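FAQ: What does a multi-protein file look like?

Like this. Sequence, then tokens, then the next protein.
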Amino acid sequence: MSDSRVKAPSTGAEVVALFARQNLRIGRELRGWSQVELAQRSSTVTAASISQFENGHSRPSAATLDGLASTLRVPVAFFTARLTAADEPQVTGFFRSLRSTTPRQRRQALALVGLVRALVAELEEVTALPVLTLPRHPVDDEAKDDVIECIAQNVRDEWGLCPGPVSDVVRCIERRGIVTTRAHTSLDGVDAFSVPTPTRRPVIVLGADKGLRDRSRFDAAHELGHLVMHNPADEGSRAAELQAHQFASAFLMPAEDIYDQLPSKADWPRLLELKRVWQVSIAALLKRAQTLEVMTPATYMQAYKFMSVRGWRKNEPGRLGSPESPVLLQTAVNVAAAAGEPLSELIARAGLPYDEVMALLRVDHHIPHVEI
């Protein structure tokens, strides 16, 4: 490898000189702590000092950084890691479960994205990740269903997808350079979310606790809809959530391809077969039938109530197997290792906490080779 590669600082003085104040905040939020809570767990710093450090009004000493690193369970080089761009505003994201998550939970989730982005920055120096090809079709709150339908079809066309079901939604997204991972960490209440960025690759984080292939595929398509249509200012908008939901339905079940297959009544055997073919939930198929006016609103509501009474809203019949697995980062890690850059060295050079990166990657060093 080139000797020009940036290495993690090896001395306290180097870390102090390169200290990135936003990294202290990200490290704190990664643990779900406030400034006061971090100070209470530390024997070397006060909440007022932490505030000064994070605001850039003062700079911690090498000894103080050592203590903070120990308390936060991160390497001291974490405070110089490339978690964000220097001139980038604080990261925001689109959260599926915005109303049921606290600001603290969302900040913790976004801190995880900082780790992903730093790892990607390191990997891009030793591997060639797919070129980012993310179509952008911004909409406002007033965009109608037919507009969203056209956007979803345009994305499929721009990506060269064949008619019919998408065989693997996550792989489809990753091949276009969008980083996707699963949150294999304790983020109770946080569902799938996505993070757009003007300076780096967007990131989609899928939940790890569902185990439902159909639901996870819909989550991935929903987050893709946000990245295609929305801006950070749209975060939390009910209109944006409904639009992303409509996009996911149209992306996974194009009207021209599925219209003639949908039943006009609640034909459960038929719906189970369509679930297997299209790899979407029965609930999504029913909603699609109603949206495309194959099924009347009254018939849809009757079927919806039938599912609710039988507990199918949370536990549908016809399980499809395990959720689709992100492979882009895992494959890049394997390629880097084959080129003489083992993961442990990448993590150390990036200044990242080893356990958290391994949990995000769930790295299997024996996964089949996948072209990236």
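And here is the next protein:
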Amino acid sequence: MLTHFNDDGRARMVDVGGKEATLREAVACGSVYVNAETFGLIARGEIKKGDVLAVAQVAGIMAAKRTPEIIPMCHPIAITGIDISFSPDKERGAIDITASVRCKGETGVEMEALTAVSAAALTIYDMCKAAQKDIEISNIRLLKKTGGKSDFGGISMHSEPHVAAVCISDKKGVIKTSVPEIFVKIDHGVVDDAHAGRGHRQVSLLAGESVDKLRGKMPALQAGDFAENILTQGICLYALPVGTKLRVGGAVLKVTQIGKECHNQGCAIKKQTGDCVMPREGIFAIVLQEGAIKPGDRIEIITAAVTGRQDHCG
């Protein structure tokens, strides 16, 4: 139900005075796409206007604080913290932006997080437009919100993010088999798995929640039936932006792709399951830190900040 209308059908600011003040957080993300030349100028600090990401970070923080001046029906909120981080990806020509905003109050900070990402992205455009006019800003969205009447996205409110199963196969295009443990290697992927090798799709992950959507018509679904290496629980994988770093058990993975095109409509996976959820909601990652992964291992979302420090947003 839309709440920003009064009895006369005119816009109003909702009265939140009767709500309980709680700790609230919202995380939003988005991406800026540039060509190889512009990406190099940013990375080398050769944009004439200055340090692009440093300026964009300040712009995002300032914009979050002034959201009520931009969005008419937003409440002025006493923000307690704002973190903005960037994950440049040379292969995609992308600068992925994540903004986390926190407060203790009667209403949430989703708009502040989204405004922060938008302002940071626009600032990158402004800083670089002399070098490239066709910069693309894309996929600005809310990743998660917590602390209000209902939580959304990112981390499940019912379960701490963890590994539900790990799987391998000795051939491509077939379902995988659950194993007690896997080991992932840099520039390789999962040891003893047919999909291992260099490239940007070294490890595949699928959320157990995605599989659960199909259990009504396919109750016998098992871990590995969609050819995933890692089946997770308690985290919305496909809502993570490309560039997100995940600590999974003893390893660190970096998300490189969300979903994929299914080139073979008659593949063994689809024949086995009747539907292939992996192209829609599976994700792929490369290995940044080698290590063992087993069922029950905790999954932690990591964001690489401009300063080189690591911020935990999950």
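Q: Is there any per-entry metadata?
A: Some entries carry free-text notes. For the entry above: The CA atoms of residues 46 and 215 lie 53 Å apart.
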